[in-house]
Amino acid sequence: MACDLADETVLGGLPAVAVAANEALRSASAKVNMDDVASHNSRQDCWVVLYGEAFDVTEYVQHHPGKDFLLQAAGKDASGLFESIHGSKGKAVLKSEGFRSRYLVGKVDRPEPEEFTFANDVVYQEMSAEVEAYFKSVAGTMWAKGGLCERAVVYVKFVLILGLALFTKYQSVLGSGSLVNSFMHCITMLLVIFNISHGACHGELIMRYPTWFSKLSQWVHVFLGSRPGDWMQWHNVSHHQHTNTHSDLDTNRGMPFLRLHDEDPHFWWLRYQHRYVWFIYPMTHIVTFIQRERFFAAFQISLCNLLSWALAGRFCMWQLLAESFMFGFGFVMINHITHTNDETEYVHRPSTKVGWGEHQLRSSSNWCMDNIAVTMLLGGINYQIEHHLFQSIHHIHYPEMSKIIRRVSKKQNVPYVSFPTYFAALRSHIKLLVRMGTPL
Q1: How far from 347 is each of 125, 192, 363, 365, CA to CA, in Å?
Q2: Contacts of residue 324, Cβ cutoff 8 Å, sequence gap at least 6
Q3: CA geometry: angle at 330 spanning 329 and 333, to 5°?
Q4: pLDDT tens digits for range 357-378
Q5: Which residues does the chain have with pLDDT short of 70?
Q6: What does DSSP assign to residue 273?
Q7: What letter would DSSP give residue 195?
Q8: Which residue among 38, 71, 317, 429 is buried most deeply as judged by most CB within 10 Å?
């Protein structure tokens, strides 16, 4: 995979040496089982599925602009990631004889996901073409991708937010131990994920920024208690490709205490979920981040307590728990409502599949689009539609992109869900909780 829309350099520099693999399999007529693909899931043996075909990209990893960025999809179907990251030139390279002769293994036995299709995705093709044309029109200006405005935002945010995160972490671990310090660090954790590590883990920085800066921005994610590679696998590969489906880990973690979709089973206590869910949401950080990285999180927790005991004469476990609960609640309250509200759609093995791009439109929503302060403070999280359709583009471009996407959506008669305020989106989320908790 490459890491920016419509950049011909992403897949262009193909290595001179062909991949040394079973050449007998390398033909468009060969059949590959998805279980077999799943077994090739490491840096030393990396296969990915793109549009129903398996490619052995083991040797290509070292030539990829993001290096191990590609490994998040090792052994998996990465069609949705490829679709939202590459423009027409990158897709043309994928279809080229040179690339296919080197890396194609064969067709997979399950050509497409159950919920949507990549074939004849007219809505996304039109949006992608217009967005690509827009960036060509501003190329070389301060508003270009990687231009002066974007770079200023990226570097200023990195310095200010990382500095604030280090300061508040110091105060939380070695300071007075008050909940005020924990709250302040919780705020900076939210700023870190929304403004630095989230975008970096989506490949925003790979093509136009130093490699070390891109990797460092990804690893700032450790402030949240997990490593960036794990976040990419469940957030990028699962959530971004299969948004609001039964394959989306982000919106299918709550059962049996939280019901968000019609296909989920109903239990008697769920009729009260709109009342008790506010006590579950603070657990999000532990369930979503720490549980998946138990040894890494345990190391971080132990290190913080050791430093606190050695330098301040006390342990800081209560402060760490307070930070976790507050961050978890804040993360859900800001991010969760963009997909789980009463206006977005949930798809579960439909009889008629829509295109992947149209599915992203129907399953995502925006809020506070006219508030530039909210957009800058939250790293464009309030422009969730644009982010899901073009995930490797920096959020400073979302307002202009939204004009294109809204115009195409209206032309194609596809819903574009946007709430005027945060509280309007929150009310829609509560409405969904009440409706899903109502007995069948």
Answers
A1: 21, 31, 8, 15
A2: 225, 282, 285, 286, 290
A3: 85
A4: 999 999 999 999 999 999 999 9
A5: 1-29, 111-112, 114, 251-254, 289-291, 349-352
A6: H
A7: I
A8: 429
